[in-house]
Design brief:
The complex is a heterodimer of chains A (about 210) and B (about 725). Chain A has about 210 residues and is an alpha+beta fold. Helix content of chain A is about 30%, strand content about 15%. Chain A has helices at about 15-25, 70-80, 135-140, 150-165, 170-175, 190-205, and strands at about 35-40, 40-45, 50-55, 60-65, 100, 105, 120. In chain A, the strands form two sheets. In chain A, strands 4-3-7-5-6 form a five-stranded mixed beta sheet, with helices on both faces. A two-stranded antiparallel sheet of chain A has the order 1-2. In chain A, helix 3 packs across helix 6. Chain B is built from 18 helices and 26 strands. In chain B, strand 13 (about 275-285) and strand 14 form a beta hairpin. Classes of the chains: A alpha+beta (about 210), B alpha+beta (about 725). Chains A and B meet through helix 2, helix 3, helix 4, helix 5 and helix 6 of A and helix 1 and helix 16 of B.
């Protein structure tokens, strides 16, 4: 990462910075919003140059200067080296980039980084501390629900959200609820096993 | 002792081999921490992209890169197919890389690609291949090559003796690999003479040399590293133009890393292509089901190189055969090995024709296969045993009905079966195993784990042989500076790495015993390791902990190399497998649903059953995918692929695969064959088994895969207009 991509904390709040840069449009690389008045309301237009973007990822505040056209997925992967989410179809079909935004599953390829500011983003990398396995990841390991493993992080995130909602999922619910993720090696049998294992542990929890 | 010291342990002595272990790299993958080539971010890394030819067949006439070169952030431009490059200026499929650029980030690289102007002279193209070529024309046309004409026995008189003859069409289209991690690499030059590659490959040991050759560099100057690969399926064995371009862009940019990963559209259009195979088949039998004769006229394509010849009838030694095959030479992406190259296509044609023949004979296909089981030599016994196991798991005999489900309502149910074979002998492999005086154990191998469980199997064999836990061994693979190994292709990895590892661990243990024996007042051949303790056999109390035993090595680390091939029959070739499918077909919508599939598979001695079963399950799921959904849809007018995204190049999802049952054959009669690969064989039968099940359900054959609703409805309509069902 070059220096221009890593803004140092200047002591200026983001809001103030945006205001300042909106006025001083001479900044060569990093531009704040142009403020337009539309129907009596102020609309902030960013880009096409780089703008400072701050994301809250796995509890960490990460900042970079990016063109507004950067997707959340590309910002995570290429700027912050958070590479649990994978880029596969890059158009909202395959689910390999699934992350949680404010606890909802989202395809990170279909959200702009700039739109994801101010929200809590969780990726597979952040599910459990280094060296520990989240129960969903552990269920994937126990059931051999990965081969090449490239779809796995997205599937783990989708499964985590799915079992929260469907603690005792039926096959039909699994087909629909996890139908937004694709695997090429063919690990679906293992993933069904993982869901069953997690349902079992949820039932035990519920019964206790 | 003259006795061969390299023999897999008897079942009673296996502690880890054949036991259900979790995948050792499962945690790093399931936590998202595994780093694939696509995930690597190197310091000061640039991003590569390329201008792609929009035409299926063209000559580059001019290139203007001046605007791109002036753009801020663009660091290198490299012409791959220039107008003055002679033959190189001609391109043979849409999506061919013409000019590559490297820029500070991806959006800038994409902008630069848009700013490059390339002009082409369009040339005639052909991208279709499902239409039967007229043989007389084929012999004169540049688009067709007669690949083979062959006869066995006397087909003409055998058909005259046949009491029942069936003729039909069968086939499967060109499909792509659709690896989830697209092809690509990160190239950098640490100094002007050395190239360092992170590359998404099935061939860590060999790819460096291929790149070196392309850029005129000594092979030893290319360092290749890869920890994980996001799928290959045969498409990541060899050199790719974009890989060479990345190295050249990096060189032009002063050696800084250049990451060049294909986008999804290019991956689908150019980075994978399983040849098609279509056939018109005639088969004949006696009334009692005795199979007598086969005649086929087949054709297919895998792009500019055609598609190779077809060994049909597949698996079956039909006594009288007459067959011709024509290669269609067309302008689609080049053929690549696709998990069990040509076998699924040959199986669809053969098992489809025989299933239809059985139906015409009024026989259950299961009985037809049993009746002709001798024609499945040399695997008649295996297939027969597997058919019986599959029958139990599917309840075939009690559930089978003749062609055309008579149940009321639009949804019809049916059963189908198919069988297959594959080689799978272990490839050349080297294992360096070191035991350090502090008791730590290290293995280095130049192989790769493409998701099949290679790491798990190496550690299983080493730990089982040394008598220590798998966690006690530090395994390093995925680097071409480790001992030479082979590409992971053709189901050859498990046999290769397990045999090399077994020989290394056997030798290391023997040498360790020689050092430890004096301390235990014993002879080396009296020692054994059990549960991490080196002890005198039959005297459990007389021993040393593993750590104390290793300290007897003194200051010297013990390193031995195990190789494959080598002494002892540890790996073998030639497996049999049987699969059965149970489907439902909605005759109003044409939608096929998989209810259940059964796979019974032989692969000799199973090292890692959990991962071997995953291979079979995965193969069945890939099979559902190519049977029902996958096709590289080409447009003859534009010469391009139409479905270059994952919405329209559809893979099977979790709700599409039904109940999957796997049974690995093992134990006496199978274990003593040694270790045989399992990646390819179970991929072969699903297309045929599913196609046969659909025919059994609806009473008519849907000739070509994939069995999409439009094809199912068309077959139903054609069946009705012919005034009856088979």
């Amino acid at each position: 990462m070059s220096d221009q991509d890593s803004p140092k904390d200047s002591g200026i709040s983001r809001r103030k910075f945006l205001k300042i840069s909106a006025i001083t449009t001479s900044a060569p690389f990093v531009l704040g919003p142009t403020v337009l008045e539309v129907a009596g309301e102020e609309v902030h237009v960013f880009g096409p140059g780089k703008v400072p973007i701050t994301l809250n990822v796995n509890g960490k505040r990460l900042t970079a200067n990016l063109e507004p056209r950067f997707t959340l997925l590309d910002a995570l992967r290429e700027k912050f080296e958070v590479t649990g989410p994978k880029r596969v179809c890059d158009r909202g079909t395959c689910g390999a980039c699934t992350v949680l935004i404010d606890n909802k599953t989202v395809y990170a390829c279909s959200v702009l980084a700039i739109e994801a500011q101010g929200r809590q983003i969780v990726t597979t990398d952040g599910l459990a501390p280094q060296g520990k396995l989240h129960p969903v990841s552990a269920a994937f390991v126990d059931n051999d629900a990965q081969q090449c493993g490239f779809c796995t992080p997205g599937f783990v995130m989708a499964t985590r959200a799915f079992v929260d909602k469907h603690p005792n999922a039926t096959p039909d619910e699994i087909a629909k609820g996890l139908g937004g993720n694709f695997c090429r090696c063919g690990t679906y049998a293992g993933i069904k096993g993982a869901v069953a294992q997690l349902s079992g542990s949820q039932q035990q929890k519920g019964g206790a | 002792m003259a006795e061969n010291q390299y023999q897999w342990p008897d079942a009673s002595k296996r502690k880890l081999i054949g036991k259900r272990m979790n995948r050792v790299d499962g945690p790093v993958k399931a936590s998202g921490r595994a780093k694939y080539t696509y995930d690597i971010v190197r310091p000061n890394m640039l991003y590569g992209d390329s201008v792609k030819c929009p035409y299926a067949h063209a000559r580059v006439t001019s290139i203007d890169t001046s605007a791109a070169e002036k753009m801020p952030g663009v660091k290198a431009v490299h012409v791959i197919h220039g107008p003055n490059d002679g033959a190189k200026g001609e391109v043979f499929w849409a999506g061919t890389d013409i000019v590559a650029v490297a820029a500070v980030d991806e959006p800038t690289a994409r902008d630069a690609v848009r700013a490059i102007k390339v002009e082409y002279e369009q040339l005639p193209h052909l991208v279709l291949n499902d239409k039967e070529p007229n043989l007389a024309e084929a012999e004169k046309s540049e688009w067709y090559k007669v690949a083979s004409k062959e006869s066995v026995g006397d087909a003409n008189s055998a058909f005259q003796q046949s009491e029942v003859i069936h003729e039909g069409r069968y086939g499967s289209p060109v499909i792509t690999h659709c690896c989830l991690e697209t092809h690509g690499s990160i190239a950098e030059w640490p100094d002007p003479d050395h190239l360092f590659l992170h590359i998404s490959t099935q061939n860590v040991p060999g790819i460096g040399e291929q790149v070196a050759k392309a850029i005129d560099l000594p092979a030893s100057n290319v360092h290749v590293h890869q920890d994980h690969v996001g799928g290959g399926f045969g498409s990541k064995l060899g050199l790719d133009p974009w890989g060479v371009a990345a190295a050249q862009l990096s060189k032009k940019a002063g050696g800084v890393p250049v990451k060049m990963m294909l986008n999804r559209a290019t991956e689908l259009e150019t980075a994978g292509c399983r040849p098609s195979a279509y056939a018109r088949v005639k088969v004949g039998a006696k009334k009692d089901g005795t199979l007598l004769a086969w005649e086929s006229y087949s054709w297919g394509s895998g792009g500019p190189g055609g598609g190779g010849s077809l060994a049909i009838p597949y698996v079956w030694k039909v006594p009288n055969q007459q067959k011709q095959h024509v290669n269609v030479v067309n302008n689609i992406g080049p053929a690549r090995a696709w998990r069990a190259p040509n076998h699924p296509q040959m199986c669809v044609i053969t098992m489809g024709a025989l299933d239809d023949l059985a139906a015409k004979l009024g026989m259950d296909t299961f009985d037809f296969v049993k009746k002709n089981i001798d024609l499945l030599d040399p695997r008649s016994k295996i297939y027969s045993e597997e058919l019986d196991v599959a029958n139990e798991l599917m309840q075939w005999k009690s559930r089978w009905h003749p062609r055309g489900d008579k149940a009321a309502g639009p949804v019809k149910q049916g059963l189908g079966l198919a069988l297959h074979t594959w080689g799978g002998r272990g490839h050349s492999s080297n294992c360096d195993l070191s035991i350090h005086p502090d008791g730590s154990v290290e293995i280095k191998m130049g192989t790769q784990d493409i998701g099949t469980g290679t790491r798990t199997s190496i550690l299983t064999v080493a730990a089982d042989t040394l008598g220590i836990p798998m966690e006690a061994i530090n395994l390093q693979i995925g680097d071409n500076q480790y001992p030479p190994d082979s590409a992971s292709g053709g189901s050859s990895t498990i046999g290769g790495v397990s045999s090399a590892t077994f020989r290394a661990a056997t030798d290391a243990k023997k040498q360790l015993f020689a050092k430890v024996a004096p301390a235990l007042n014993a002879q080396p051949n009296e020692l054994e390791v059990v549960d991490g303790r080196v002890r005198v056999a039959g005297n459990p109390d007389h021993g040393l902990s593993w750590k104390d035993a290793c300290s007897k090595l003194g200051a010297q680390t013990l390193t031995v190399r195990g190789t494959n091939p080598g002494e002892g029959d540890l790996t073998n070739s030639g497996v049999g497998g049987v699969q059965m499918a149970d489907v439902s077909v909605d005759t109003e919508t044409g939608i096929v649903k998989i209810n259940k599939m059964v796979a019974v598979q032989d692969c000799g001695l199973v090292i890692s059953p959990k991962q071997a079963e995953s291979q079979v399950l995965g193969a069945m799921i890939m099979g559902v995918s190519y049977a029902l959904y996958e096709e590289k849809v080409m447009d003859q007018t534009t010469g391009t692929m139409l479905n270059t995204n994952m919405d329209n190049y559809r893979l099977a999802g979790i709700g599409d695969v039904g109940e999957l049952v796997v049974r690995l054959m093992g134990g006496p009669g199978y274990d003593e064959k040694g270790v045989i690969g399992i990646g390819e064989p179970p991929t072969v039968s699903p297309g045929a088994a599913i196609s046969n099940a659909v025919a059994n359900a609806i009473g008519v054959r849907v000739p070509y895969l994939p069995l999409t609703p439009d094809r199912v409805l068309a077959a139903l309509e054609a069946g009705q207009s012919e005034g009856g069902r088979a």
